[in-house]
Amino acid sequence: MGSLGFWRLAQADPEWIAAVDPDGTEHRAGDLLARADRVVHGLRGLGLEPGDGFCGLVPNGVEGLVLYLAALQAGWYYTPVNWHLTGPEIGYIVADSEAKAFFVHERFADAGAEAAEAAGLDVGRRFAFGEVPGFRPESELEDGQPETHPDDRTAGATMHYTSGTTGRPKGVRRRLHGIDPDDSAELLTFLLGLFGIQPGRPAGQDPQAHLVTSPNYHTAVTQFGGTALHMGHTLVYVDHWDAEDTLRLIDKYAITNTHMVPTHFKRLLSLPEDVRKRYDVSSMRWAIHAAAPCPVPLKAQMLDWWGDCIWEYYAATEGGGTIASPQEWRAHPGTVGKAWPISELLLVDDDGEPVPANTPGTIYMKMVSGDFEYKGDKAKTEESRLNGFFTVGDVGHLTEDGFLFLSDRKSDMIISGGANIYPAEIENEIVLHPKVADVAVFGIPDEEWGEQIKAVIEPAAGVDPGPDLAAEILASLEGRLAKMKWPRTIDFIETMPREPNGKLLKRKLRDPYWKDRERAI
């Protein structure tokens, strides 16, 4: 194959700045390569063989990147763990993934130590970045190891755990094919190629830089960041996302591409005009977003501000998907795009029968090379499948010409008086109000109607919550949303419970209303 893939690029150009930590520390490709090679030798010394795996509880930055690069050239599964979980929850993932080693950053020392104990992991297989009680310094794993490229290299993979909307999270595990890691890395670049993204290396290409805006334990963050690195882009890491800081980094590092979610757009657009004009964002050529339906006016405002660089896709940890170029979206506002060249879509009714165009149905997807299993859960794997296609339970419709539009997650649908109501449609209208920072809509029990519509709203900075604000927000829906879709009641909250990737933890808001019921509708 060609010349892409981190290991090839780092050997050819060791001085290339491959990553920038959140504190601004720059890391040369040659140094990262040497560290990844030492980690491979060290873990092989512990007895790790192809097909084994290990976990990392680490913040955004080069520690996780080194672990990722080690696993992907030694035939191992690397599982980056959500650092917002509790010790026992992390311990479950360490045990369930059958991790042969566990790396913990001192920032998460307490939860990491508790997790290692819960998983019953041998002390000799616990490694710390910084000080973690009961863990060996990670440097001990690397000390004395050669910086030579390991022999018998074979491609590994990441194994991410789904967020577990029902039951415990499950690892999404793909079969390892035993191919050369360099060739595998080059194949991975197909993903960014779908968006027309160009390599930044080998030398002589236009420099490219990718801004990592969300935690590295999310699948898309790992995939887009890792793939950008394999294309020779510089990775610029963010520790805690901040709207103005994002603009500052785009300006400072001439960021050309990033991966975002609609919540990021809302917060960027909420910045005062003078702050927005302070920074040059003209370097941005591919601002890719996903994870939730994006209100049409919100995206239109981003396109007006940043130009035709806003790309959208629809996919899941399990695979994908669709893609919408800025031009396609302008022609079909609200679409998440058409199927990838290596993907197929199937929309079905509750009986599993295909639905006609423009008719809501459960979305199933299939990728040419998308074979996966939920580790240790054959029943869940089979339950999500239909004739080789899989679903994560989203509902939408396809137009005659193949453009997909999302309605909502099936489990979030409200059934009121026999009518199906999609919260996302209501949320997309309410969030446009200038006094609204964030919103969640869901169904709560109603003796007469089955469910009634509840909205929980996070007011914009400096806005007082209360009946007057609720009345103003409802009045703004006049003529834009059928009265049957208006929230019956509005509650206010100081901070919406969202994961850092923008995913709303709606269960935290909804569950208290259903706790005395036998089942939630």
From TrEMBL:
It comes from Actinomadura harenae. Residues 7-366 form the AMP-dependent synthetase/ligase domain. InterPro entries: AMP-bd_C (IPR025110), AMP-bd_C_sf (IPR045851), AMP-binding_CS (IPR020845), AMP-dep_synth/lig_dom (IPR000873), ANL_N_sf (IPR042099). Residues 134-172 are annotated as: Disordered. Gene3D superfamilies: 3.30.300.30, N-terminal domain of ligase-like. This is Acyl-CoA synthetase. Keywords: Ligase. Belongs to the ATP-dependent AMP-binding enzyme family. GO terms for biological process: fatty acid metabolic process. Residues 425-503 form the AMP-binding enzyme C-terminal domain. One of its GO terms (molecular function) is medium-chain fatty acid-CoA ligase activity. The keyword Transcription regulation does not apply.
